[in-house]
Amino acid sequence: MFVRGLKRKCFDGEEDIEGTLAGIKAIPSYNLQRQSLLDMSLVKLQLCHMLVEPNLCRSVLIANTVRQIQEEMTQDGTWQMINTQSTGQASLDRLVSTDILCRSSRDHQAEEKHGPAYGTFNKDFESDQAQDNSETMSTASAVQPPRNLQSNVWEMESPQENKGNFQKSLDQIFETLENKSPNTVEDLFSEVDSSYYDLDTMLTGMMSNTKMGHCDSLETFSSPTNTASNSNCKSDLNDLDHIVEILVES
Amino acid sequence: ADIISTVEFNYTGDLLATGDKGGRVVIFQREQETKSRPLSRGEYNVYSTFQSHEPEFDYLKSLEIEEKINKIRWLPQQNAAHFLLSTNDKTIKLWKISERDKRAEGYNLKDEDGRLREPCRVTELRVPTLKPMDLMVEASPRRTFANAHTYHINSISVNSDYATYLSADDLRINLWHLEVTNRSFNIVDIKPANMEELTEVITAAEFHPHHCNVFVYSSSKGTIRLCDMRSSALCDQHSKFFEEPEDPSSRSFFSEIISSISDVKFSHSGRYMMTRDYLSVKVWDLNMENRPVETYQVHEYLRSKLCSLYENDCIFDKFECCWNGSDSTIMTGSYNNFFRTFERSTLRDTTLEASRESSKPRAILKPRKVCTTGKRKKDEITVDSLDFNKKILHTAWHPAENIIAVAATNNLYLFQEKVN
Q: Which chain A residue shows the shortest CA-CA distance from B251?
């Protein structure tokens, strides 16, 4: 039934949840599944940028899905849970201000340059990024790329802008992966990081073969070192191999 | 043969046009019933083939423009020739298809082979005569409507005034006059000032079959807006807004994606319209905006597989739907080369398969069934064994008779009701 080789780790069917025992396991499982859905969506958004001309409807739908997931993750405190785990004593102050900013960010939406959809996150990241490189920032900035990605996907009218924005957003994604600490957020990001690294390797390898002008900016990237590896990366690799094959053939 | 991307009967049903991914249009004509070949009635044979669109390159964006034909719409016949509109992502073309079965002979100024004769050698004048020749069907482009769409054209619709038509892309709808190619009027524009705020796109649009001032357009959020061109020049304000309230119990991350409408079609009567979203077909009464009057589940068994279908991109497949001539039955496609028909009054639904193995010429199609429970009966197919690469996105129903055209990837199937 499955066309691609990606490991199936989704919400499919009720067979995952059988009885109370599994019900206890279901809660972290839901978070993992949600996270993997988020990662899958981000990869899709990235990949559709590689095509001839991105299908706007598909991009909008995927971006909306990403936004929904992130909104839900904010609501049930998963984002703040990450912050609590990964930051030490010193950043408690920042944690408090993050919380306040989340609540009042809707008032600030009009001032924001970027889309209101990510309004709840904007202030956090801009203030965080101004400070030292920390683990909070790494998780925070993971959310920011989609917003910029979204702008890249829509703006088909100025390829020059595209180049700049695209480079910036990919910069951020790969920067995230380099800065990320492997311990506390590993559980949530473990399914994604290898595939991103692999994607990067694929991209830099692919660039000589594609004829897309706006992809030239990717050649400036160097592949980050692969710090973490897990069993999921093999299937992701195969999947990306398949994609690369198609692009090379065309 | 290339992947078929659109199928459309003309107003009488005598002609059936298909467009494919390679930019070609193939027109089939129905054979007339003759005494010598009594069984041939109802058969469609190739009438004309032509290259409608070629691949282009947009130098400004460094992007290729696909030649794939997204939609074909016939114009009502007004003389001996046939006219149709065909469109790819960016350009709409009006094609004239005409027959030539006579040839003029006996010209004064040129020889039979076409070479010009020297005037001094012309000693007598004669009137050219018409002689019969083998039927030749010619397709010639009469109008090219270009450079009006920044985004990909998803729909075209001929107005009931037979003089204008609309073309819709992801964010805008333009109104054209068939005679004018250098100008079009923008009647809907949903592009936000800041593209980063974009959350909804136009997915389909159609003119009302009788009221030339009314059209509808559907969106990726599962809404339909009906607009009246008399109210204002720019129809950003809708006259009617159709949306079914969401069922909170079935909400998931995929709710929005599966609610995205892939096709909207008015009934022939003009009283209803039908919308197709990923899992269902809905019939709406134009007088009731808050919910559809009928809902038909096309393949509800896929609801538990949405994540996988999202993964392999099948969730973004755009299925079309169509009415039969009397609006009593509706039809739409599914996976595994299955297509479904729903009889509205009896609520009877049928699943049929368009494939070589399951249908011999002139054999009656056997209804198929997808097994949704654990126990699989004989002849049933389990959900996991469905082939998701075999999708039927395009179907068409003859305007008067029970003849249907079903496009299965690169094959076209024609089925008709068995006549005793």
A: A68
